[in-house]
């Protein structure tokens, strides 16, 4: 059992300590001895790093998804495909990154006004209610960003 845990936690001693503490708690709660079976059943996400999203990652994934450059999506060109991708990126940053305000997002997009970001995010929200193709795209982008292999 110790070998099984050690193979899954290689870089992070705190995760290792936390896993052992959690395993002890499960064993106490169930009033059974610590075993490999118990570890496999209750330490299911062991060794999986939490993905930390950044605005740059979201921009890169959205740009790649739509076949555009990051510079164009961040930039000021008003071509329809660029504006759409820009609004999707703004929406995803706002939706997936709790600590990013509208003014912070505006700075990412070449210093736009925060009201422009609000408008872009609201356009995507409104379209999601009526456009199933856009909803599918947003869900596919979220899966890519959150590290889910299903696409």
List its salient traits.
151 residues; mainly alpha; 9 helices; 69% helix
Oligomer: single chain
Q: With helices defined by DSSP (H or I, 4 residues minimum), what is the helix count?
A: 9
Largest sheet report: none
Uncertain residue segments: none
- Return Rg in Å: 21 Å
Element-by-element helix/strand order:
HHHHHHHHH
Work out the helicity level: 55-70%
- Quick one: overall form? elongated
Structural class, by secondary structure, is: mainly alpha
Strand content: under 5%
What would the average pLDDT be, to the nearest integer? 86
> Ends: how far apart?
34 Å
Compute the number of strand runs: 0
Describe the fold and architecture:
With 151 residues, this protein is mostly helical. Helices cover 69% and strands 0% of the residues. It contains 9 helices and no strands. The chain has helices at 2-8, 13-30, 36-42, 55-66, 70-74, 80-96, 102-108, 114-130, 132-145. Helix 6 crosses helix 8 and helix 7 packs across helix 8 (114-130). It is elongated, with a radius of gyration of 21 Å. The relative contact order is 0.10.
Topology:
Blueprint (H helix, E strand, L loop, with lengths): L1 H7 L4 H18 L5 H7 L12 H12 L3 H5 L5 H17 L5 H7 L5 H17 L1 H14 L6
Helix pairs in contact: 4-6, 6-8, 7-8
What does this entry show, briefly?
The chain has 151 residues and is mostly helical. It has helices at residues 2-8, 13-30, 36-42, 55-66, 70-74, 80-96, 102-108, 114-130, 132-145. The protein is built from 9 helices and no strands.
